[in-house]
């Protein structure tokens, strides 16, 4: 029975990956940070299943800033596959906590790779690193491929760039089976509510139920390549099943604006929007003319990433992977889930 270790198991990707690996017959170990409050909502259904928790799923306290802790976990667990999904992953927040972002997202990856080598797992364990389309930042070509030059535009992107290259370095220097998944934006109803997609779908449901007046966003014209998270975690697994490690773009090769995401989200809750104005004065109005979407310049990034669109041809060719859920279907899934959530909240508040 293969053994997997997932950092960031309580996040969106970690929770889907844990489900998928358990379904494939894995024993799954997850690393979680110690906190005053439990943050296990996304894996609560696994956590509360006595046939899974402490039988095939095990949780351990740990942190990517603690090398000795990583060493102990690797020695104790002896994993065949390691998925490093833990990160300070919010781009806007990375401008406010750049040093912490670098410690976790950059040096944390180095600590992990070095721990694998130090405990003697370099010939046994396969390592997946969660890289990001934010590496491309100020894009140098359209669409972006594995060969596109990087130009990150945030402390998050720069930290992840170090993580990317240290994976390549350890792979070439020590023979580690270590791979980078350059994942473009991927979403689901489990996405954190501070991320723009979930912020929009949450707001759409709450506005539709009369629990919120409007939502304030940043750059409505920013274009992103959005996919469905469970499909992307499946690709992570496929990468580690390859005989040789490598780096792969994971994307849909379609791009849509934040404005389009708003339009689809509000349409999904039977509240179509019409946008008017430009820049900071742009608004989205419902059929009654009430403003439901506003622009707040405070949400602008110091250095904006205007366009991201990936070409996953290498993943199609070598991994047999390609996305199936369309952009419209993705937004529908998220908006419907958050509308149901708003209805439940309204009922509980009554």
Automatic annotation (TrEMBL):
Binding-site residues for NADP(+), renumbered to this chain: 214
Residue span(s) of domain NAD(P)-binding: 5-334
EC number: 4.2.1.47
CC cofactor: NADP(+)
Top-level taxon of origin: Bacteria
Gene Ontology BP term (one): 'de novo' GDP-L-fucose biosynthetic process
Top enzyme class: lyase
GO MF term list: GDP-mannose 4,6-dehydratase activity; NADP+ binding
Any Pfam family matching the protein: GDP_Man_Dehyd
Keywords, sorted A to Z: Lyase, NADP
Catalytic activity: GDP-alpha-D-mannose = GDP-4-dehydro-alpha-D-rhamnose + H2O
Cross-referenced InterPro entries: GDP_Man_deHydtase, NAD(P)-bd_dom, NAD(P)-bd_dom_sf
Purpose: Catalyzes the conversion of GDP-D-mannose to GDP-4-dehydro-6-deoxy-D-mannose.
Family of the protein in this entry: Belongs to the NAD(P)-dependent epimerase/dehydratase family. GDP-mannose 4,6-dehydratase subfamily.
UniProt-listed HAMAP family: GDP_Man_dehydratase (MF_00955)
Protein name: GDP-mannose 4,6-dehydratase
Taxonomic placement: Bacteria, Pseudomonadati, Verrucomicrobiota, Verrucomicrobiia, Verrucomicrobiales
Gene it is expressed from: gmd
């Amino acid at each position: 029975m293969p053994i997997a270790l997932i950092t960031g198991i309580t996040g969106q990707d970690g929770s889907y990956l844990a489900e998928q690996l358990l379904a494939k017959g894995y024993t799954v170990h997850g690393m979680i940070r110690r906190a005053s409050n439990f943050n296990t909502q996304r894996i609560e259904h696994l956590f509360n299943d006595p046939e899974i928790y402490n039988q095939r799923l095990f949780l351990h306290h740990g942190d990517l800033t603690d090398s000795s802790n990583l060493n102990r976990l690797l020695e104790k667990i002896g994993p065949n596959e390691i998925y490093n999904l833990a990160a300070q992953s919010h781009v806007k927040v990375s401008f406010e906590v750049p040093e912490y972002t670098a410690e976790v997202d950059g040096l944390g990856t180095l600590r992990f790779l070095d721990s694998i080598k130090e405990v003697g797992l370099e010939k046994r364990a396969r390592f997946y690193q969660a890289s990001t389309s934010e590496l491309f930042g100020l894009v140098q070509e359209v669409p972006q491929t594995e060969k596109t030059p990087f130009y990150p535009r945030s402390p998050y992107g720069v930290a992840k760039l170090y993580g990317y290259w240290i994976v390549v370095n350890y792979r070439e220097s020590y023979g580690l089976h270590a791979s980078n998944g350059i994942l473009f934006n991927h979403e689901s109803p489990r996405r954190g509510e501070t991320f723009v997609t979930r912020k929009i779908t949450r707001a759409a449901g709450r506005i539709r139920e009369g629990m919120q007046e409007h939502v304030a966003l940043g750059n409505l014209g920013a274009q992103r390549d959005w996919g469905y998270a469970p499909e992307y975690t499946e690709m992570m697994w496929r990468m580690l099943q390859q005989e040789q490690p490598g780096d792969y773009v994971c994307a849909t090769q379609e791009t849509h604006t934040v404005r389009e995401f708003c339009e689809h989200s509000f349409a999904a809750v039977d509240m179509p929007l019409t946008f008017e104005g430009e820049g900071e004065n742009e608004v989205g109005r419902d059929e009654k003319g009430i403003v439901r979407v506003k622009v707040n310049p405070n949400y602008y990034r110091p250095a904006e990433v205007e366009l991201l669109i990936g070409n996953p041809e290498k993943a199609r060719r070598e991994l047999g992977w390609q996305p199936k859920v369309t952009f419209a279907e993705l937004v529908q899934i998220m908006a419907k889930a958050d509308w149901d959530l708003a209805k439940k909240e309204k009922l509980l508040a009554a």
